[in-house]
Amino acid sequence: MTLTADPRAERTYQVRTFGCQMNVHDSERISGLLESSGYAPAGEGVEPDLVVFNTCAVRENADNRLYGNLGNLRSVKDNHPGMQIAVGGCLAQKDQQTIISKAPWVDVVFGTHNIGSLPALLERSRHNQQAELEILEALEVFPSTLPTKRDSTYSGWVSISVGCNNTCTFCIVPSLRGKEKDRRPGEILAEVQALVDGGAVEVTLLGQNVNTYGVEFGDRGAFAKLLRACGQIEGLERVRFTSPHPASFTEDVIEAMAETPNVMPQLHMPLQSGSDRILKDMRRSYRSAKFLRILDSVRERMPHAAITTDIIVGFPGETEEDFQDTLDVVEASRFSSAFTFQYSIRPGTPAGEMQNQVPKAIVQERFERLTALQDRISAEETQKLVGTCQELLVTAHAGTKGAETGRLSGRAPDNRLVHFSVPAGAEQPRPGDFVTVAITEAHPYHLVADPELDPTGTGYTLRRSRAGDAWDRAQADSCGVPTAGTAPGGATLLGMPTLRPRS
């Protein structure tokens, strides 16, 4: 018989997130839902009463990672009366009953389409003393209508669409997230405005394919219009988006990026492969020449844009010639960084049924060559920035060596990570403030700004911001100190109301 906890006690929770930015944003919704239902976040080192896994199913190790974590929690739960475990996200949508079969100590399994059901499922499981499984095949409510616990006071995700209409042979996302569903522009802009009103100075527009936004309601130019509309929001200093699809990337989006001052000179453009034959087998409806033309067009309008990408190594049937085509495109593209993946079979995808799988040893050797090439290119590109001045949005995380070096961290307009020192006697910035620094040192994937080594004498300039003020309020509120002004960015925000359809 399962032990139960005192129902009058406040229950604590922890959300563990695996996967992409969409999962991170969904976890903000999950946290908001739980806090709106009376749960409190578990403190550092505190064993939570509820652990929620928000899972990814894109790569093969996702299964092992989840079940390994669940196995580690079994004995913890046995010794923690009333503890519950819930599994959601893409892997839950895919595996469903399998999760409970493999880990019968799990209390709730919910899918990508019914995040809003989680509190009720937890209560039902607790009452009935049995596992609850609820997976919907279509979206129940758009996630933006749910309460949200934002991770950051100064920056936020804003989902503009969910789902995907593409049929890439390696990808399981469309079957788990469903067909693309677009939000109305007014709802998106209202959420952006609400974030800005709460102190945020940066938003990232999020979708599986952001640049196909508007197709559902018949406006193929909707994404470019949305970028321009974000440029009209006072106090919004930085706008980013991820991820577009090369096949749907149009000139009007490039023009909107270049002509809207708060849209940052940064672009994530997934290549996947530089071989036209492999792109065809992947059902990626573009070819390498078109991909390179897009990059040329972006750089013609925004010469200092940083472009990142995704690349899969070892797709079924990939020959050495195909792989060399990828190396050639990477060399020509001059990516600032690349997310590189070794192909892994995902059950339920067409590529997983292909017979000509590439041996693991060959995939590994190619992967190492690709990462070595990208490391060299990244180092060459960051070296060009030494001596330039960059305005950084200061982040809350100082990096793994922050305590050792005494440096803080920030993001440049092109989203490059910069570790910087504050001169002796200068005012310290808060997360959300802006600092202007001169770059003094370059590494492949980060930059360093040390005012004492600045040959230009530019030094260090601090610009305090509304986002920094919001950070102060959030810190004071977390200590129980009452503060004036708007709600802190770390608060749980109510979901955005949907627009009433016209009669």
TrEMBL record:
Subunit structure: Monomer.
Organism: Micrococcus terreus
MF GO annotations: 4 iron, 4 sulfur cluster binding; metal ion binding; tRNA-2-methylthio-N(6)-dimethylallyladenosine(37) synthase activity
Highest rank taxon of the organism: Bacteria
Every MTTase N-terminal domain range: 11-127
Residues given in the record as [4Fe-4S] cluster 2 binding sites: 164, 168, 171
Biased composition (Low complexity): 482-495
Protein name, UniProt field: tRNA-2-methylthio-N(6)-dimethylallyladenosine synthase
